[in-house]
Specification:
The protein contains 3 helices and 7 strands. The chain is of the alpha/beta class and 164 residues long.
Amino acid sequence: MTRYPRWIRALLAGVALTWIGCPSLHVEWADYNPGSFAPMDRFAFAPEPQLSANAGRADLEIRRANRALATHEMREALEAKGYQHDAASPDYTVHFLMGEGAKDVYQPYGSNLQGELDVWFVRRGETDRFWHGWAALTLYGEIDATKEIKEAAVRVLGPVPPRR
């Protein structure tokens, strides 16, 4: 067995610990045309989907809290760009899913945790999306859902053009 000097073992351990605890957030956009936003000032969020418990009542409460956090962060990001939240008369509706596929929570897969925030905008009275972005996250080790959801919400809405 090869015995490495103490400083090399310490360096390798530090690199491994850094890699194990680091999330990998990948953000992409489609159907994106900055001019699509020109006539729009007001937004609303689509109704929350009906959630059913995957692992009991506590699981459901965590998922609802994560959805509320994502909604709050996206609302703040859009308002900071000059858009107004108007549930009664929006120009467009913000739809989103969280999790893997149609599920709505960060799900464990083997030793990894994976999550996705999938966001799309639909003009009032239409069904086709005019903007679509998503943030996919893979974590190795512990997850801080609050931190990761905040970062995903802000980054996925990053290219939305400001109104001001």
